[in-house]
Design goal:
Layout (H helix, E strand, L loop, with lengths): L2 E2 L1 E4 L15 H14 L3 E5 L5 H8 L8 E7 L11 H8 L4 E7 L2 H6 L5 H17 L3 E7 L1 H7 L1 H13 L4 E6 L6 H11 L8 E5 L6 H11 L3 E4 L13 H10 L1 H4 L2 E2 L4 H4 L2 H11 L17 E2 L3 H8 L17 E2 L3 H14 L9 H16 L7 H11 L8 E13 L5 E13 L2 E9 L2 H9 L7 H4 L3 E11 L4 E10 L5 E8 L2 H19 L5
Parallel strand pairs: 1-10, 2-3, 2-9, 3-4, 4-5, 5-6, 6-7, 7-8, 8-9, 11-12
Antiparallel strand pairs: 13-14, 14-15, 16-17, 17-18
Helix pairs in contact: 1-13, 5-7, 6-7, 8-9, 15-16, 16-17, 17-20, 18-20
This protein binds zinc ion (ZN).
């Protein structure tokens, strides 16, 4: 029997502290589902009562299948009883199966930051854990600055941890709050703590200020801790938290851990890891780190030369794990032959049959290279790649053409004296022998253009009736010669299938138009609409 290791994700709480990250309620709900689907044991949602988003989050209905949704907050304030502390009351009322308290464990912080006595801090820990237990919650206690506290006063740091454990906390979490601890330190101290508190009740919460949050987490596991806290893509304030996207495959694929421990992430879920990591970046509207271990676009990319030819013979020669295990792909760069095999692998993945000796494959490769240089990112826009491939291979009918469009944005003062902005789009479309003109008003130029374009496509209208736009993202790219706008549009149809299309142009309306056109044509291809 393997020992169970538990994964605790704090992307929505500690990760929300990242500079420039501002999750909406919809973001938080979507990320929670993503973490649950990945097989994470605990999803820490936030700090109910501390801000409107988190308060709404804990009131909103959630559909998590396995993960324990966890609320975060402080232990009771010194000098107050648990029944007379509004912050604690809000936490105890939050709709969450588990509560994670944070408490001081460094005597210096108790005195200087909390301005109370060591004994009162211990009583606050005991009382808060007991109050949450009495409410039927699973309780965790984060010991803030535990490693610094332990170095300064091991007896007191340990007393804080033990107070929580004795009061019934399921997990006592040792936090390296300022991220300054080193792996050998962590291993030694966690080993010492294990003599007082059983390791299967100990967690590690590491920050990345010396680039060693992942190493510190693994060191704690080696010493006996059985819960790891971290975030997706290492999000977190300053230099971030321990990156679960690196920790998970290490636990699953490296024999030292894989042979001893089981985690909640199955092999099938591990294959979704790269997608989860990229989906978070897309949601944050930032470019994924190409060099991210395991999941980055370059993690299994090899330049031409002896390495590439050896990899073609046997991938194990240069790869520490197989890229497919984490949902990534092998990439061989530069050489024509390698490029072709990338394209063929890509076509196979999206279900297009092609002959490797077909000269059109070479043309498609050239086209993709040229477009990627111009800013297209086909990895994020499968549907546009699908269409490009079909066009080069000659299998996309010319369903309709847009001969002209016009978008007018007007700001004026209406009859009530309010300043309003009105957008009108007019589109001229040719379908077969028919010429049509559609006009639509929208809440902005892209919305108006979309509505006008989809208003009347003649005989194709029935195929696109169930099409809706679900997301629209814009990024300005500097491609070297000029700044261009990249638009990604996510669409959904009546069957629930989603796809993403891309447009690139110095003009945002034109880039949006390209992505909209691709989305409609993709839907027609997928529906086998007659030419
Ligand atoms: Zn933290």
């Amino acid at each position: 029997m393997k020992e169970r290791l538990y994964l605790f994700d704090t992307t929505l709480r500690d990760g929300a502290q990242t500079n420039g990250v501002d999750f909406t309620l919809a973001d938080k709900l979507a990320i929670a589902v993503m973490l649950d689907d990945l097989g994470i044991d605990y999803v820490e949602g936030g700090y109910p009562g501390a801000n409107p988003t988190d308060t709404e989050l804990f009131a909103a209905p959630r559909q998590l299948k396995h993960a324990t949704f966890t609320a975060f907050g402080m232990t009771r304030r010194p000098g107050r009883s648990t029944s007379n502390d509004p912050g604690l009351a809000a936490l105890l009322e939050a709709k969450a199966a588990a509560i994670c308290f944070v408490a001081k464990s460094w005597d210096y912080h108790v005195k200087v930051a909390l301005e109370t006595t060591e004994e009162e801090n211990l009583a606050s820990i005991r009382d808060s854990v007991a109050a949450a237990k009495a409410k039927g919650r699973e309780v965790l206690l984060d010991c803030e600055h535990f490693f610094d506290g332990y170095r300064a006063n091991p007896t007191y740091a340990l007393a804080c941890a033990k107070a929580a454990y004795d009061a019934g906390a399921r997990w006592v979490v040792l936090c390296d709050t300022n991220g300054g601890a080193l792996p050998h330190d962590v291993e030694t101290i966690v080993g010492e703590v294990c003599k007082t508190i059983p390791g299967d009740h100990l967690g590690i919460h590491a920050h990345n200020d010396t680039e060693q949050a992942v190493a510190n987490s693994l060191a704690a596991v080696r010493a006996g801790a059985r819960q790891i806290q971290g975030t997706l893509n290492g999000l977190g304030e300053r230099c971030g938290n321990a990156n679960l996207v690196s920790i998970i495959p290490t636990l699953k694929l490296k024999p030292e851990y894989a042979e001893r421990f089981a985690i909640g992430v199955s092999d099938a879920q591990l294959k979704k890891l790269a997608q989860v990591s990229h989906a978070l970046d897309e949601r944050l509207n930032r470019a994924p780190n190409r060099h991210a271990p395991y999941v980055g676009a370059s993690a299994f990319a090899t330049k031409a030369g002896i390495h590439a030819s050896a990899i073609v013979k046997d991938p194990a020669t240069y790869e520490h794990v197989a890229p497919e295990t984490v949902g990534n792909r092998r990439k061989l760069l530069v050489s024509e032959q390698a490029g072709k095999s990338n394209i063929l692998a890509e076509l196979e993945r999206i279900g297009i049959k092609a002959d490797k000796d077909d000269p059109r494959i070479g043309r498609l490769l050239e086209e993709v290279k040229a477009r990627e240089t111009a800013g297209y990112a086909y990895e994020a826009a499968d549907a546009s790649f699908d269409l490009l491939a079909r066009r080069v291979l000659g299998s996309v009918p010319n369903y309709f053409s847009v001969t002209q469009f016009d978008v007018n944005v007007e700001q004026r003062v209406n009859a009530k004296g309010e300043r309003v902005t009105v957008t009108l789009a007019v589109v001229k479309v040719t379908v077969g022998d028919e010429n049509m003109i559609s006009a639509a008003e929208g809440n902005g130029p892209v919305n108006a253009l979309d509505l006008a374009l989809r208003k009347d496509l003649g005989k194709y209208q029935k195929f696109i009736a169930g099409l809706t736009l679900t997301d629209y993202r814009v990024r300005i790219l500097n491609t070297g010669t000029e700044a261009v706008t990249r638009v990604l549009i996510e669409s959904e149809d009546e069957t629930g299938e989603r796809w993403t299309t891309i447009g690139i142009s110095p003009n945002i309306i034109d880039a949006s138009f390209q992505a909209l056109m691709d989305s409609i044509v993709y839907k027609l291809v997928k529906s086998n609409a007659p030419a």
